[in-house]
Amino acid sequence: MINSMLTESRRFSASSQVKQHAAGGCFFLMVLLLLGALLYSTISWMWDEHRLPLSKLVLQGNLQYVSTLDVQRAFAQLEHIGTFMSQDIDVLQSRAQEIPWVAHASIRKQWPDTIKVFLTEHQVAAIWNGNTLLNDKGVVFNGDISIVKQEYVKLYGPDDSAIEVLAAWRKYNPSFRTVGLNISSLVLNERRAWQIILDNGIRLEIGKESLDERIARFFLLYRQLGRDIERISYIDLRYDTGAAVGWFAEQE
């Protein structure tokens, strides 16, 4: 009788433990489901473009030619700007770098609705082929020439020669400055021949070869001509020795 009662008690205890474990498991499952629902609801809310749009723009950088309006117009070309969670920063950065004056763009998002844009502008070194600009690294870019705030040398050459022509100007212009002159235009034509136009209007025909020697010959001639230099239209230095001088017509 006693053994029977003990067996029944053990069965009741085991059944009670099973029920407790089952209840605990159900409660844990309910908690997981609730957390999952909350997480899904939160993520859906954060990705909803109508609830959390990126609506504020902060422009940073030492800028002369790029404005907040330029950046807004660039972003406006996208089909849409997403939310803090959904918008791809690389897409915004790529669009910002398409602005003509922008050399580099760095973009980050700030919770909950702000885009911070840090831009570096091209530094103008020259006007290239009359209608584009050249930066200090020899990169051609399509900035608006009409808004450039100072005078720059005008460089001309074939499409793949920008770095070469810029390097030649940087090499030779300091020598001209020692005698009070500046190169206002430097031309490398399709035949790879060089031409220099000085700021006093004299045109120098240099040719393809011996640039250093021919430019040095100009300086010898320049010092000898004295005041007559004002009457010179061009100097052709494409000779082994000497030069041909073209004079302005005498005026009454």
Task: Produce a short descriptive summary.
Part of a complex composed of FtsB, FtsL and FtsQ. It is found in: Cell inner membrane; Membrane. Helices cover 37% and strands 24% of the residues.
Attribute tags:
rod-shaped, single chain, Ubiquitin-like (UB roll), 252 residues, 12 strands
Description:
- It is found in: Cell inner membrane; Membrane.
- This is Cell division protein FtsQ.
- By secondary structure, the chain is of the alpha/beta class.
- It has two domains: 66 residues, membrane protein fhac (Ubiquitin-like (UB roll), Roll); 124 residues, 3-Layer(aba) Sandwich (Rossmann fold).
- Helix content is 37%, strand content 24%.
- A nine-stranded mixed sheet has the order 6-5-4-7-8-9-10-11-12, covered by helices on one side. Strands 1-3-2 form a three-stranded mixed sheet, covered by helices on one side.
- The protein is rod-shaped and about 120 Å long.
- The model has no long low-confidence stretch (mean pLDDT 85).
